[in-house]
Amino acid sequence: MSFPTAVEAQLERRRRKWRPVLWLLALAGVAGLFLAVLLLIRVLQSGTPYHEGEEAHFRHGSIGAEPASGIPYKVWMALPELYPAAFEPEGDYRAFGFLYDEGSDLPIGISRRTVAGVDLVWFNCGVCHTGTVRETPQAEPRTISGMPAHQLDLHGFTRFVLDAAVDPRMAPDPLRAAMRDSGHGLGPVEGLIWKVAVFPRLREGMIDRAARLGPLFERQPPWGPGRVDTFNPYKVLAFGEDARALSEDEVVGAADFPSIFLQGPREGMQLHWDGNNPSLAERNLSAALGAGVTPETADHAAIERMARWLEDLPPPESPHRPNPAAVDRGRSIYMEGCADCHGYQGEEGYVFEGDRLGTVEPLGSVGTDPARLKSYTEAFREAQLRELFAGTPYAFRHFVKTDGYANAPLDGLWLRAPYLHNGSVPTLQDLLLPPEQRPVTFRRGGDVIDPKGGFVSETCSAGSGCFDTRLPGNSNAGHLWGTGLGEAQKSDLLSYLLTF
């Protein structure tokens, strides 16, 4: 039998002394590794929900806007808590004219995508092309995919986001508290990720966007509900132009959201309000870029899925029931003076026929407000062709600079008020009046059907929330066809138009 020496005994005593420390270090290492794995799993997660139905995909499916333009889902849900006055009276995004499907916590047109472990939300096609109608003020709104989002105040919403970017309440501590109070708080692992990466990136991105878009908004009148400046924000955000350097001719370019029914028959027509592209695919991709997609983030499969659905999507039947004899008389007037440019409504639906249908009517002939046409400059066109999707199968090739506005088909006309490309004429009856007799001011965004064609639009005094046709880009001049008819003929023509 051997006995430990004094040295060995001393070493054993030291081992016993340090053994708990070593165990603690080992456990800390395992815990750290576990936390690192959790963080890695969170950060690497990416993807977007798949929607089985085509209409659900149109209203809620991601097209790829979230990675470059979106904000975290939990922040989106917390903003009404953080800024209650801006979201009155409903307490949600209906304050800006967004619409909701029953049971959905996100508005129509707001999609969701997980990017590097963070759920982000932003726009898809449905945000600009879904609206509501009511046959009476007491009726429940009917939500229709494909019609213009005439109730959406995109300018007001964007202005709110830009102002919030530099507001102290968007600092991490008050924002985190609002997230918690709205029921969307952060767990321990999430909190660490947000502190290190999400909060700083969110604030920096918002401040950068405000610095770029703010000078543009200072130079423009408010767009009003149902309208958007298609190209000027695009110039500032995608191509880095300084909004202060834009010319006076191009800086105002707001126009109505269009309807997007029956896209298939439109292939080859001059598309966009000014007819600057005959390719549906390029038009769709350009619109996706306007919604916040970039060439790097575009979800082409999702965009193309929506496009296929829209090829055959018909507008709902007009609820107007004018006198049949008046409709017959009005059809004769229309076929003689209007069908060549706009096609016509037949017994089985809309007929896309007309020698000038889908071609550009020169500005000198149509005489409508030139601002939207001027906002699309030759320099911008060249940048689109040179830079967007360059070197890929999606590169833009067909954009052109035109000298007027496109002669568009009129399918679903009853859903497309206000009228003209800039939405400056509230009803079809008003459109048949000489410009000097058309309403000078009116409120946009209503959804109660007007028997005069369009939606009921209250008169108003110039100022907040009132559409003023005297402001830049808002002129109600032009499109004189039909204005010289007698009153009886105008009445008959209106009866036929109400059936579209």
Write structural notes for this entry.
The protein is mostly helical and 500 residues long. It is globular, with a radius of gyration of 28 Å. It is built from 17 helices and 13 strands. Helices cover 39% and strands 9% of the residues. It has helices spanning 6-44, 54-60, 66-69, 73-82, 154-165, 172-181, 188-218, 232-238, 280-290, 300-311, 324-337, 339-342, 363-366, 371-375, 378-387, 428-431, 487-497; strands at residues 71-72, 110-115, 118-123, 130-133, 142-145, 227-229, 254-256, 344-346, 349-351, 360-362, 404-406, 441-442, 467-468. α4 packs across α6 (172-181), α5 (154-165) packs across α7 (188-218) and α11 (324-337) crosses α17. The protein starts with 5 loop residues before the first helix and ends with a helix. The strands form six sheets. Strands 1-3-2 form a three-stranded antiparallel β-sheet. A two-stranded antiparallel sheet has the order 4-5. It has one domain (54-497).
Provide the descriptors you would attach to this structure in a database record:
13 strands, 17 helices, globular, two-stranded antiparallel ribbon, 3-stranded antiparallel beta sheet
- Number of beta-strand segments: 13
For the terminal residues, how far apart are their CA atoms? 109 Å
Helical proportion, percent range: 25-40%
Q: Characterize the quaternary organization of these chains.
A: single chain
Strand order of the largest sheet: 1-3-2
Strand content: 5-15%
> Low-confidence parts lasting 5 or more residues at pLDDT below 50?
25-31, 33-41
Overall 3D geometry? globular
As for the number of domains, it is 1
CA radius of gyration is: 28 Å
Mean pLDDT: 92
